[in-house]
Automatic annotation (TrEMBL):
Dimethylallyl phosphate binds at Y167, K183. Flavin prenyltransferase that catalyzes the synthesis of the prenylated FMN cofactor (prenyl-FMN) for 4-hydroxy-3-polyprenylbenzoic acid decarboxylase UbiD. The prenyltransferase is metal-independent and links a dimethylallyl moiety from dimethylallyl monophosphate (DMAP) to the flavin N5 and C6 atoms of FMN. Keywords: Flavoprotein, FMN, Prenyltransferase, Transferase. This is Flavin prenyltransferase UbiX. It comes from Fontibacillus panacisegetis. The gene is ubiX. GO terms for molecular function: carboxy-lyase activity; flavin prenyltransferase activity.
Length: 207
């Protein structure tokens, strides 16, 4: 059960490639004590199964396996549950992150269609003036993709493309995933130690 005393965040995971980003994000938020409201699209579940090998026959069991045992708690909302708590602006959360964000979901948010719980929750962030971060994972991009992102950026939405850096000498995929999750958390001023920042090593005081 979600505690009213903890900070809460909504995390959406769509069917774009890169479900590992969303999973790592949720685990990190839980680790630092957030209560996380999770929404996963049907396509998102399929990608999780294909990319990460999850057994999703029992979705609640899969979530318990990967998200239990942290400081924070989670609540899973069905994508079609338009009456869920996070569909209302009167329900207080710190913000929302969609990671990864498909171009279909991004388009729905940009055009205010609110056709499922994920896009409705995002619409709530916009109307209430709360932080909304989208992590698009698509390439190449055509003009409609770019126009939708520009439209959202002008509304104050933070667009953080899934573009990992290499200046910190990543050793494996986990390092690249952690970097991108860290960049998303940076946009929300959430402290973390997921990657070495530029200058952290080279600017240490002399001994």
């Amino acid at each position: 059960m979600i505690s009213s005393k903890k900070k809460a965040m909504v995390v959406g995971v769509t069917g774009a490639s890169g479900s590992i980003y969303g999973i790592k994000l949720i685990q990190t938020l839980l680790d630092v004590g957030y209560d996380v409201h999770i929404v996963i699209s049907n396509a998102g579940w399929r990608v999780i199964k294909e990319e990460l090998g999850w057994n999703i026959a029992d979705r609640n069991a899969a979530l318990n396996e990967h998200f239990n045992g942290y400081s924070g708690s989670y609540i899973y909302h069905q994508i079609g549950d338009i009456g869920a708590s996070i569909a209302s602006g009167s329900f207080l959360v710190e913000g929302m992150i969609v990671m990864p964000c498909s171009m279909g979901t991004l388009s729905s948010i940009a055009n205010g269609t609110s056709d499922n719980l994920m896009t409705r929750a995002a619409d709530v962030m916009l109307k209430e003036g709360r932080p909304l971060v989208l992590v698009p994972r698509e390439t190449p991009l055509h003009a409609i993709h770019l126009e939708n992102m520009l439209k959202l950026a002008r509304l104050g939405v933070r667009i953080v493309p899934a573009m990992p850096a290499f200046y910190f000498n990543p050793k494996n995929i986990d390092d690249l995933v952690a970097f991108l999750v860290g960049k998303v958390l940076d946009t929300l001023r959430i402290e973390h130690e997921l990657f070495t920042r530029w200058g952290d090593e080279s600017e240490q005081p002399g001994k």
